[in-house]
Design goal:
Layout: H1 10-17, H2 27-32, E1 43-50, E2 56-58, E3 66-69, H3 73-83, E4 87-93, H4 110-121, E5 126-131, E6 145-146, E7 149-150, H5 152-168, E8 173-176, H6 183-193, E9 202-207, H7 214-220, H8 240-252, E10 256-260, H9 266-275, E11 280-284, H10 286-297, H11 303-317, E12 321-324, H12 327-335
Parallel strand pairs: 1-3, 1-4, 1-12, 4-5, 5-8, 9-10, 10-11, 11-12
Antiparallel strand pairs: 2-3, 6-7
Length: about 350
């Protein structure tokens, strides 16, 4: 064994000591020191359920995603459960729409029927009910109108009715996405008053008025009939306002808070994580999904690798829960050891 050079300098020794690559030299050591670890248990799959029979209709703007009638939804739930995904969030597509979005709080509304069916056929899965009015109103806005403006306080009463109807139908969790001020406190009050004290609320707390939602509005037939939603969804320029919204929801009783969208909002996921002591969800929205699918179909990117990288980035930023249309595929990648 040779001796050290007599003339080696202190600076040279220091440079030789710091070799971060030592911990990247094999897959075993890389896996051992991995900082961000994810599990299928943290995934939620968004699912569109529609009135009718024998419906499995592909959503044109979201290749590989479908609208299911209740009699066909079990095949999707089976695939998810077999892949290790145990949580689903329902979005309803009703036959009838009106000014007050009555289908959202009807005992026999589409989400309520889907919840009862799913709880019976897949009792080991966990079902989240998205709570909003946009899919159910004839005008496509997320609340009750006063002229051309959404009336915040009038809407709260309807959100309470929807939450109770969803809980009665078996929802394990309620997820209000409307962005009305004070809605978390109002929903918590209504759930508790009806005996649903153990049903948690996952609030869409920092939900931005984003251009990434386009394919979803096609999927859920929920585009506003006039104007836009910028008077209640957040301006994507604003960071401090996002934290304000999140902290208000926690104060009002939110059990989980959410940042939506996910991919371009990692800075806010991190700040929300640092500012709160509740779990943080990130919603990888329809536009993110469709961009990956269509660009991969053109041969420009590797769909699997991009999908995995996007997910890891959200978790690395601080997400505890990841809501994604790629849930089944991500779970399979975890099983294969490609991510985890």
């Amino acid at each position: 064994m040779g001796s050290l050079r007599d003339d080696i300098t202190e600076k040279e020794v220091q440079v030789m000591i710091q070799r971060p690559r030592r911990l990247r030299s094999s897959s075993q050591i890389r896996n051992m020191v991995r900082e961000t670890r994810i599990s299928p248990d943290s995934l939620i799959y968004p699912m569109f359920v529609a009135e009718g029979e024998n419906i499995k209709e592909e959503i044109k703007s979201m290749p590989g995603q479908y609208r299911y009638s209740i009699d066909r939804m079990d095949e999707c739930l089976d695939e998810l459960e077999n892949a290790g995904v145990h949580a689903v969030m329902f979005f309803g597509i009703p036959d009838h729409k009106d000014e007050t979005g009555s289908g959202a709080y009807d005992h026999n509304g589409i989400v309520q029927k889907a919840l009862r069916h799913a709880k019976e056929t897949h009792p080991c899965m966990y079902f989240v009910a998205d709570l909003c009015m946009c899919e159910y109103t004839s005008h496509g806005h997320c609340g009750i109108l006063n002229g051309t403006e959404v009336d915040n306080d009038a809407t709260l009463t309807y959100l309470q009715k929807i939450a109770v109807a969803q809980a009665e139908a078996g929802a394990d969790m309620i997820a209000p996405s409307d962005m009305m001020d004070g809605r978390v406190a109002a929903i918590r009050e209504a759930l508790d008053a009806h005996g649903y004290t153990n049903v948690p609320i996952m609030a869409y707390s920092a939900k931005f008025a984003s251009s990434f939602y386009g394919p979803f509005r096609d999927a859920a037939d929920s585009a506003p009939g006039f104007g836009d939603r910028k008077s209640y969804q957040m301006d994507f320029h604003n960071r401090r306002e996002a934290l304000k919204e999140v902290l208000l929801d926690v104060e009002e009783g939110a059990d989980i808070v959410m940042v939506k969208p996910a991919a371009c909002y990692g800075d806010l996921i991190r700040e929300v994580k640092d500012a709160t002591n509740v779990p943080v969800a990130a919603y990888s929205v329809s536009g993110e999904y469709s961009m990956v699918k269509t660009t991969a179909a053109a041969g420009y990117i590797d769909e699997e690798r991009i999908m995995c990288e996007m997910a890891v980035c959200a978790y690395r930023a601080g997400a505890d829960i990841y809501i994604t249309y790629f849930a089944k595929e991500l779970a399979e990648c975890m099983r294969k050891g490609l991510i985890g």
